[in-house]
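Translate sequence into structure tokens.
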Amino acid sequence: MNIVVRGKNIEISETMRNYVTKKLSKLERFFDRLMDATVNFTLERGRIKVESTLTASGIVIRGEAVGSDWRSALDEVMDKLERQVKRYKERLGKRGVLRKEAVVEFEREEVEEPALPPVDKVARVKEFVLRPMSIEDAILQMELLGHTFFIFKDLDKDKVQVVYKREDGNYGLIDPIY
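Result follows.
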């Protein structure tokens, strides 16, 4: 697994790098498909914030924590990542490694397009690669990231779609017509 350790307002020592590598290697015991890991340490107002992102077979797994010292924050992040990796692996096992037999019901609803903000109001532009995946995989990816929506390229229809979490706990699908 390729591991990148970065620091903002904090110097990354060799001890920190070794500890991160040791902790991340334990995750490989649970799931051997982990490819890349990025761990960012940030010193903010006397507290250490640790953000970690793992890539496993095209799936992104994230965790973050804040602590008084870097070890406790990193340990908390590793606990979160371990739970997510185990959950992801369990779901793969239940589905027979990404089987398409899982049934998820979606409501079709009309969605009004909101007015676009003026160009000078856009605070950030984010680009990412759209990987072809099933709706079930998109929901799993959204849950692993902790987001309320996820944009993906549908494996069957070969077009961009958005899956989102509704307030009632169900999922919705935005299927654009173009």
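Note: Helices lie at 14-30, 70-94, 135-145.
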